[in-house]
Design brief:
CATH superfamily of the largest domain: Aldehyde Dehydrogenase, Chain A, domain 1
Strand order of the largest sheet: 12-15-16-11-10-17-18
Radius of gyration: 27 Å
Organism: Solimonas terrae
GO molecular function: aldehyde dehydrogenase (NAD+) activity
Number of strands: 22
Protein name: Aldehyde dehydrogenase
Largest sheet: 7 strands, mixed
Structural class: alpha/beta
Mean pLDDT: 94
Keywords: NAD, Oxidoreductase
CATH architecture of the largest domain: 3-Layer(aba) Sandwich
CATH class of the largest domain: Alpha Beta
Strand content: 15-25%
Pfam families: Aldedh
Length: 506
Amino acid sequence: MTLIPESPRSGAAARSTDADDLQKLLRLQRAAVIAEGYVAQNVREDRLDRATAMMLAHRKRLLDAIMQDFGARGRDWSLLTEVFLPVQLLMAARKQLGSWMQAERRQAPMPFRLFGARAEIQYQPLGVIGIMGAWNAPINLVLAPMVTALAAGNRAMLCPSDMMPASAAALAAAVDDYFDASELAVVAGGLETSKAFSALRFDHLMFTGSPAVGAQVMAAAAPNLTPVTLELGGKCPVILGDDADLDDSAARLIAAKTLNGGQACLAPDLLFVPRRRLDDFITRLDAKMAALYPGSVQNPDYCGVVNERHYRRLGSLLAEAGQLGARVVPLGLAGADLPTQDDAQRRLALHAIIDPPDGARALGEELFGPVMVIIPYDDVQRLCTRLREMEKPLGLYVFSGRSRFVQKVLDGSYSGGVTVNDAMFHYSVPDLPFGGVGRSGMGSYSFGIEGFRRFSHARSVYHQAGPAALMRVLQPPYGRLFDLAVRKNLDRLARRYEKIPGRTRA
């Protein structure tokens, strides 16, 4: 079943939708873009205000729907991530919108700028933005990019994950209560709906999900030459320096890894620890986990795995690692006789797989759950070589008080972003672009001005000044002035660079 608002404030009537219906909705929004023309600041502010009011008015229904879809997930965590944070993003964008919309001055060329020539970038709305979300944050991951898409003056079609039908339905009802379908609409359905959505001729398509599905989305967008931003994932490594504070590092990593039960694209996957500190660090991790979630899987704030398929997948990873000879350690029990899993709630204790052999699935697959791999290392140079051999991750985390060590790791590795002495925090900085590299993503956005720019066209504008005679040297017929300005200049440069041999002269 797909939900599309049929008319403003019509009650979000549900009806089945096919590719033709999606095309009609796209044409509706594109016609509105053409009719509207320039999108004034007050219009954008009104849309942001209505989106804020929408979230506040529908927050309980949205939370109920998320709990229905997700099951064992703390309601307070859902309130924080799926309601509070989007509301904060909307209000921040509303406050900064005026400065974001200002033209950006650039330097005009000489000698024209001496006569008053000006160069600038004006940020222009792209048009209609398609946003495809992921199941691990079903509301947040469509609303966060929506904020800056609306701030940039666009209209948008939102496609929540097909794994979260109740959340998608609740969001569709909320949007329909505050927006005309020509401004903002929610498309919800199954796999075929998602495929048809990604094949629409948007002015920009934003996708959050796995690399495998991201490749399919990119292939569907390619015939339309639709530009895409792909926020994917990968195995985010942690490098613990020999001087790192073990207690502090363990506390921060446990907090990061257990967010949403480890079901986050930025969750730490691989922990590289100096060999001599390995056992001590595992002990600290166990203690910090026990302190943060007393009772382990019996703690109601501890997030369960989203569905049975993923629950079984994680169990299989742990079983395989043990069979291959790796040490598999449940964390957070603190010596108590506590269960390590709750099948009814799909809660699995955080497990560490210690130094699995090459070929283990835990070394190759993105874990996306309460499992992490810990690998001892002896030499940072060899470690950096190993990091470069891996697929480029979305995030990389370094724990050390020595700036030279930190920079050595950064210079010797690749990643979409970095957090030093914590994990995942670079994602939360509005002024930093967030995105992957290689298989972890393409393009970047943010909750701040980088997101505004992602969903804008940077339009170059040049205002000429000065007499037309200034261009005479570059126009035919070419003569003495051309020789002085071009030929003699090239001859002078050639003499300067002739000492640099080419390969055939070396």
